[in-house]
Amino acid sequence: MVGAWRSPGRLPLTLDAPGSKGNDKLEVTVIPDKSMAAAQAVAKGDVRCVEVPLPMTSPGDVLVRTEMASICGSDLHMVGYGWAISNWPAPAGHPGHEAVGTVVESQSDRFVEGNLVLTVPHIWRSMCFAGYQAVDEPHLLKLPAGTPVQHLLMAQQLGTVIFAAKRLPSVEGQTCVVVGQGSAGLFWDCMLKRMGAGRVIVIEPVKSRRDLATRYGADESVDVVGQAATDAVLDLTDGNGADVVIEAVGSTATLNQAFDLVRQDGHVVLFGLPESDEPVPFRFETFFKKRANAFTVLGAQDEAGLTSFKQAVDWITSGHIDVAPVLTHTKSIEQVRDAFELATGRTDGVVKVGLTF
What we know:
10 helices; six-stranded parallel β-sheet; single chain; 357 residues; alpha/beta; seven-stranded mixed β-sheet
C-alpha cells in the first residue's frame, strides 16, 4: 500500500466480486475497530447522524478523511423527494458529492498520505457526508496549500458549471436569464459574464440572494416567480425572450418556465435536477414551436484530467472568482438534520450550507 496509515485490527478480506458467482475475487481492506459519524437518509425527508464502520477500500481506492462537505440542491431533492434513491435507508454518507479531505491511506500511485484532495465521485456512488470516504483514483483532484478549505470546497459545483458552459455556443453580447440564485445560479452569473454575455437577468424571490447576484455579475433581477416572472422577463426583452436561459432550481414549474423565457431558436440549460424520479410533466408544444435547443448536464466527473474542476480550483486560488460569500452557514455532522432544514428553508440569508467533521 502507498501511504502507510496503520490501524490496530486491520484485516485483509477476500470477497466474491459482484456478479462473479464466486469465480472472481475482490481484495479489500477492513478496519473493524474504527467507526465514523455519517449522515444517513433513513426515509424520504428524514436524515440523521449515525455511527458506522469506516469504508472498505479496494485496489485503486484512496481513503480520505473528510474535512468539509457541502449540501447541493440535488442532495435536497434526493433526500427530500427520493430522486435516484430506490431503497431506504440510503447508504450512510450518500448522496453527498461535494467535499474536501485529506488522504490517510492510498492504493494509488498518484496519491499519498497527507495529500489534500477534492472528491468528485459520481452522484450514484457518492459518500461525502461521512467522516471518511473510499474514493477511486479518477475522481480525486489534488489541491494546493494556502487556500481555505471552505473556498476550495466550492470548486466542485463551480467545476460543473464550467463543464456545462463549454457546451454553449458563443454568448458574446447576448441576453441571458438565470432562474434561481443558489450557489449554482450565482456561479452561472459569473460564468456568463466571463463568456461575454451582454446582459444577465436573474429570477430570485429572496432578497439576500438577489443582492449577492449583483456581486456575481447580474445586471438586473426579478423578485417574483411563476407567470409574473415570465411576464417581467418578456417586458425586459421587448417580448422576445432571452437568448440563453439557465434553469438552476430543479423543479417541474421552472423546467417548463425556462421554455417560456427563451427566444425563438434560443438555448436552454437544464442544470437543476427534478424533485423526484417520477415522470416530469413537460409542455412539449412550447419547446417544439420555439425550436429551442436544450441540454442537461452530466459527466464533469468523466472529463479527461478533470479539467473543468482544475479550472475551478485555479480561478478560486488565483482570486479570479471570490467564493467566500457562497458558503454562508456551517454545521457539524451531528447537526445534519438542522443543516438540511436550513438549506431547504432558505432563511437567515442562507445560500450554501457546509458540514464539518
